[in-house]
## 1
Amino acid sequence: MGRLQQIIDEVHGSRDVQERLYSSFPTRVAELCTEEEVQEIILKLEALATEWETFSARSPQDGDGQDDIWRDEHRYAELLRDLLPRFPDSTMTGLANKNARVRFWTAWTISERPTRFATPHLQRAMATESDSQTAKMIRKALESCSRPWWRFWN
């Protein structure tokens, strides 16, 4: 397994707790990540999705707790987005994950950092997607990849 948590801890260093919990990961985290960490991020998104499902079933009225999990998912998805240009093959594996939330966040990643490389992967994912929210995000990612400005990130 990679060293994602070690990288995050090293880079966060002396940042205060509020910054660590509520802000995006510093750019340096992405710079230090390798392909192994991409797989760790996808596993982390899967663990957070499971946590969200469990939490939502147990405490459906607790929006604050759900927001905290969503915030963590978003932070890891942003990190995945920053790694997409360097590790596109590994990032695309998230589209085939068994969990719809992982597929959603992977598609979000691609919609934020579109690349022509992702189009066939998104088309395959769209053909089998059963979750309506994830299907919407995959469509958004496909639209983003079809726009001419994606060239800036390839």
## 2
Amino acid sequence: MKLFITSLLACSIAASSLAQNDSLPPPPPPPSNVPPLDMPMPWDHEPSSEFINQQKKYETLNIGLGMIIPMSDNDSLVMSSGAFSSSFSITSREKYRITDHLGIGYSLGYNVDNYHLEQDSAQLLWMGQDLDKQRLTIHKIMGDVFFRVIFTKPNDKPGIFLDLGAQASWNIGRRMNIEDGVDSKTVGASRIEASYRKLAYVAPFEAQALARIGLNYCSIVAKYRVTDLFVAHESTYGNKQLPNLSPIIVGLEFNIGD
């Protein structure tokens, strides 16, 4: 009898426990911000219009350093082989995408060219007199427009590209610096150091053709001046037309910021 009562109590307790479990509320659903397993993650790098070389518009800041290539033509002034004739520029550039692989853009910036001139009987900028040093420096405000071809697929770098365009410059600063040592045969002679500004025989404006081929944040730039650097003026040999300096500049350009 006692065993029967004990078994009956155990069955009642088990039934009560099962009833309580059946009355519990269902568990809450998983949070809605948990992505499903088939959702692409940011690190999957699927093609997107947010990639640099696929954005409809983006801006960069660029610094360039180039070399003015000497020429040996008889009708041109000769640049010194013992000094580096250079070109430096800093520009702000905007690019607009037309298609995945084509775009256009423009640049605005500052440029300075330094021409170190060879001293011989052919030079005409200092009345035919040979000097120890003669440097022509031209400061410019410049702008260009270009057409861009992008050769790489969408990614988060500019990729491989080719720019072809034209550049115009306003020569806001035109200066000639000269240096000449003391002639031991001349009594009372002293060293000459002078700087001449606002040179009337340097053209106030220039036009150049340009090409850039780049890989990501570095590019090779070539420019060719299509206008004369010097103009005839009464201050130079009775209005005589002056020869030209080399029109070719080749250098590197670096993208330092987006």
## 3
Amino acid sequence: MKYAKQIKIVVLLLVIGLAAGVYAADNVKAERSAKKVKGQKGWYIRLVTTSDDLKDNHTVFGYLKGASDQKDKYDSEALSVGGSHYLYTTIDHPEFARTSEYRSDYRASRKVGKKSDTWIIVVHSGDAYADVTLSWDGITRVKKNRKGDFVEKHKRGKKILGKMRLLDKENNIKINVKAENSYTFNMNGNNEHTLTWILMKDGEDEPVM
């Protein structure tokens, strides 16, 4: 009996020791993660869609430190819209599970021009013959401060925008988003209109329609 009690005590001590080790390891991971979050920064472009009395400005995309090129917590899904009087813009990701429509899409942070990137923009309108204007106004730099809050600073972003093009393949139109800050088109009898926003790699040729 005495020997059995000693074994139980040893096992209990081992369990407590393992639990303490796991707790300490989790704390280390949490501290490392917190340090990474404090240095988190990036940029985004906000798209504004308007048509008559309707306006939508809830779609953003860009680069953010800590984000990935796959689906993650920085990609917010679009909510379903009811009725026939609506106008909104989403970023299409058919490769993501569950839903393909997103309101925000942040990619892994990298030097602009190091890699080409493409965002598929889909404009949704309850009026299939509406004239719709998609606009943008520079870029917004974001940086997380010591309190863990994101601080935003709007910039003209000429360097980044200069490497970007907006393609409307249906209408065979290419927009230099640095030279222009809006594009107007007609829905042409459809409730969805797809546009392609391209970030070109350094030295890359102009995208072909």
